[in-house]
Amino acid sequence: MKLKLTSVVLLLLVITSSAFIAPVLKPVTYKVDVEKSTLTWVGKKLTGSHNGTIDLQSGSLQFNGKKLAGGDFAINMTSIKDADKSARLEGHLKADDFFGTDKFATSTFAIKKVAAGSGNTVNVTGDLTIKGVTNSITFPAAIAWNADGSVTATADKVLVDRTKYGIKYRSKGMFPDVGDKMIYDDFELAIKLVAKK
């Protein structure tokens, strides 16, 4: 009986002490430097393509050690620029046909899940909100730690189906008779976030 009691006490000591050995670490937040970070876009149509930039407004990335655990960023949609400096195109992209920036000046992305990829790549799933509509998207991103203690997260080709956000202008899926004026439903984003503690 004494031996059994001693065994139970020892077992309880092991269980309670092991509960304190591995504390849950809170993720460390890195603030996105919007001056060093970039967001570019490419939109394609049957007869060619357009590309340009959009400014990041703010953002943060959370890390458990060197592993990406979460994050978010906001995009200033009123800053859409065309690489060819076409004021007409920029105005149309800001109009209701496309992003309606008078009413929806900001788009956001919030990470919901990060899965391991190969090498320094992870698969990021999150909620992208454009024109007040939110959809889940998944894309690969590369994480690189820099000599100055900052971190760079890069996603070279994020495909976004604009029709899921109510942007249907000249979509062949929505307007089959649009002919050679068709604009592809998917547009591409290339995202580079530089963040530091």
UniProtKB/TrEMBL annotation:
SUPFAM superfamilies reported in the protein's UniProt record: YceI-like (SSF101874)
InterPro entries in the cross-refs: Lipid/polyisoprenoid-bd_YceI (IPR007372), TTHA0802/YceI-like_sf (IPR036761)
Pfam families: YceI
Ranges of residues in domain Lipid/polyisoprenoid-binding YceI-like: 29-196
Keywords: Signal
Domain of life according to the entry: Bacteria
Signal peptide: 1-21
SMART domains xref list: YceI
Protein name, entry field: Polyisoprenoid-binding protein YceI
Lineage, highest ranks first: Bacteria, Pseudomonadati, Bacteroidota, Sphingobacteriia, Sphingobacteriales
